[in-house]
Amino acid sequence: MIYHKDKALKIAEFLLQIKAVKLQPKSPFTWASGWKSPIYCDNRITLSFPNIRTFIRQAYAQSILDYFGKPDLIAGIATGGVPQGVLVAQELGIPFIYVRSSPKEHGMGNIIEGYFEKGQRVVVIEDLISTGGSSLKAIQSLREAGLDIKGLVAIFTYGFEIATKNFAEADCPVLTLSDYDTLVESALKTKYITEDDIVSLHKWREKPESWNP
After folding, report:
1. How far apart are CA 3 and CA 5, in angstroms?
2. Residue segments in the chain with a per-residue pLDDT below the cut of 70
3. Could you tell me the pTM of the whole model?
4. 45 lies in some domain
5. Domain for residue 208, yes or no?
6. Distance between CA atoms of 4 and 1, rounded to whole angstroms?
7. pLDDT of residue 102
8. Could you tell me the residue range of the domain that residue 110 belongs to?
9. Which of 12, 110, 127, 180 is most exposed, with the fewest beta carbons within 10 Å of its own?
10. How far apart are the C-alpha atoms of 126 and 135, rounded to whole Å?
11. Among positive and negative, which fits the CA dihedral 195, 23, 180, 182?
């Protein structure tokens, strides 16, 4: 679910403007999974643009307050969710922790970094949702540590059906600041893509593993 339609369109416009998202239906990218994709997303680029970084930080914070109330902690997911999570925690004036992709190989062997107490209410920050696998792995680590996960907020989601299913099965509400459909809408309005591209873009989202332009 997107937080706010007008803000979602504005964020989509920003992502295209700074090339944090690139749409190339006629010249697709190849993901690490081997999938061919008309879209490439790197939301870390938003951190290099102060006005966009601020807009996104404030949208994150307001969406959390509106949908989940003020939590006790913000938890970022490595790597993309860590800098965004720090900004959001600062905006809300609450503590921050983060979840590693794997346990530290020395010292205490932590997978969660930062101070927390069992039972604290947490909103998790991610920058991008694809299938949801890495996000849910981090959420499981937080739950095993005794934390109460209220939900997850991300900048962008591709809107894959498998991700919706995975989060529903994990009983984790998800909110995003923008999404694939909104991005395509914005790209068409700004003539970044043409009407001829729309069918191919929608077919990819329906069956990304077998899509071929």
Report:
1. 7
2. 104-109
3. 0.94
4. yes
5. no
6. 9
7. 83
8. 5-203
9. 110
10. 7
11. negative
Instruction: Report CA torsion sign: 48, 50, 52, 54.
Output: positive
Q: In what order do the strands lie in the sheet with 148-157?
A: 112-113, 96-99, 73-77, 121-129, 148-157, 174-179
Q: In the chain, how many domains are there? A: 1
167: in domain: yes
96 forms beta bridges with 74
Q: In this predicted structure, what is the pLDDT of residue 134?
A: 93
Q: Is residue 181 part of a domain?
A: yes
Alpha-carbon dihedral 127, 129, 130, 135, rounded to 10 degrees: 100
CATH code: domain of residue 98: 3.40.50.2020
Decide: residue 143, CB within 10 A, 0-12 exposed, 13-18 middle, 19+ buried: middle
**CB 162 within 8 Å of CB 136:** no
Mapped to the 3 state alphabet, what secondary structure does the chain carry?
CECCHHHHHHHHHHHHHCCCEEECCCCCEECCCCCEECEEECHHHHHHCHHHHHHHHHHHHHHHHHHCCCCCEEEEECCCHHHHHHHHHHHHCCCEEEECCCCCCCCCCCCEECCCCCCCEEEEEEEEECCCHHHHHHHHHHHHCCCEEEEEEEEEECCCHHHHHHHHHCCCCEEEEEEHHHHHHHHHHCCCCCHHHHHHHHHHHHCCCCCCC
Task: At 164, list the tokens.
Answer: 């919706």
From the list 99, 122, 125, the residue with the least C-alpha distance to 110 is 99
